[in-house]
Amino acid sequence: MEIQRTAVVKLSIPDHRRDDLKRTMDTFRDAVQRFADRGWEGDDNGYVITTRTQLQPLVYDEVREDTGLHADLCVGAVNQAADALSICVKKMKEGERTSKPVFTSNTTVYTTNAITYFDGYCSLAAYGNGRVHAEYVYPDESPQAKCMESDEWNKQGARLRYDQQSDTYYLHVSVTQEREVSSGEAENRTVLGVDRNVDGNLAVTSTGAFIGNADLLNHKRREYNRCRARLQQQGERSAHLTIQSIGKKFSNWSEDFLHRASKRLVSEPVSQDCTTIVFEDLEQIRERISNASKFQQWAFRELKRQTVYKARAEGITVETVNPAYTSQRCSHTECGFTDDSNRDGDAFVCQKCGKELHSDYNAARNIAHKFIQNRRTSGSGGATYHLALKSGTVNGNGEYSPSTAGG
């Protein structure tokens, strides 16, 4: 099984090459914009172009001639533009409003041919007198050092980011590792159920972890909207520039907020030795979140997206189930009574057995339970699945095993 991670490494750039690297990043951003502009114009049938194979031949030679950008960086620019255009088309198909991608961030995509890794430093394609040699800056025993210096991790492409406030370059390196799965791990799997929300807690797990403050996220969004509305009324250029600035600041804050929440979410199954995370199927819950704002819906989806790639890096699979009745069913092992009256807001009280739980925690337990029951009835692979709870696990037959970790 392939494990994927991202090692974020601070770089030390020679003073005499910093301008060359900055020019490279600016030119790359402009190249991405040119590819995106052409893709947005569409093909002969008027459809937005979203694939690299279609987009690259149209303006690649012009971009190379006009900018002198390294060939492999041009390929990276095409890829980034195509990815952004694909997201726009997806939004269109889902009925969301969208517009042509505009690129403003100081980020450059380095393919494996545009970057070479050495012990303690890397070589980056750039303008000026040859490639830029940049030294890694991190403690000897840090996670970054283990990924960059160990033969166990294979280094792939990377993204170079420039932090203007600190005047610092960071390299986000994609690293992979092949890890064997033992027969015991394949036959015995522990499942963590996750209930997501657009308010209250972002996520609640079947082990009783309440993660992320969705109300804070929504509050920050409302503050940003009010500030933007005031500035739009002014109608001045300075106000427009301020809107762009606070918009970028809020976007960065939101992404970091969800990053920390998804990191915390993945740490839960890691600490509980879980092999599988189970979410509700997004297509099945579209009606439930249809009244939420576009921003809330984005956060709902983004939390799962970030969780998926972080979980994959830990060797944990992510699955989905139809969430029908998971909020109404009593998750108590010996009960399972299902009725609308069981839930009242955040409170869940089973009208049959009297079990009292937080409603989101109850739903998370049921999400994992449904996945396990689906696997039992399908007879998939002969694996034994266990539901991860606060104090232990329950298998598909309802047999409880206490936690060996003392929790």
The largest pleated sheet is described as: 8 strands, mixed
Q: Element order, helices and strands?
A: EHHHEEEEHEEHEEEHHEHEEEEHEEE
The CATH level-2 architecture of the largest domain is identified as 2-Layer Sandwich
Fill in the CATH topology of the largest domain: Nucleotidyltransferase, domain 5
CATH superfamily of the largest domain: YqgF/RNase H-like domain
Average pLDDT works out at: 85
Secondary-structure-derived class = alpha+beta
Architecture blueprint of SSEs:
Layout: E1 2-12, H1 18-41, H2 52-67, H3 71-93, E2 107-110, E3 115-118, E4 121-124, E5 132-137, H4 143-149, E6 154-163, E7 168-178, H5 183-187, E8 188-196, E9 201-205, E10 210-213, H6 214-234, H7 237-271, E11 276-280, H8 294-313, E12 317-321, E13 343-344, E14 347-349, E15 356-358, H9 359-378, E16 384-388, E17 392-395, E18 400-402
Parallel strand pairs: 8-11, 8-16, 11-12
Antiparallel strand pairs: 1-5, 1-7, 2-6, 3-4, 4-5, 6-7, 8-9, 9-10, 13-14, 14-15, 16-17, 17-18
Helix pairs in contact: 1-2, 1-3, 2-3, 6-7, 7-8
Concise account of the structure shown:
The chain has 407 residues and is of the alpha+beta class. The chain has helices at 18-41, 52-67, 71-93, 143-149, 183-187, 214-234, 237-271, 294-313, 359-378, and strands at residues 2-12, 107-110, 115-118, 121-124, 132-137, 154-163, 168-178, 188-196, 201-205, 210-213, 276-280, 317-321, 343-344, 347-349, 356-358, 384-388, 392-395, 400-402. A hairpin with a 4-residue loop joins strand 6 and strand 7.
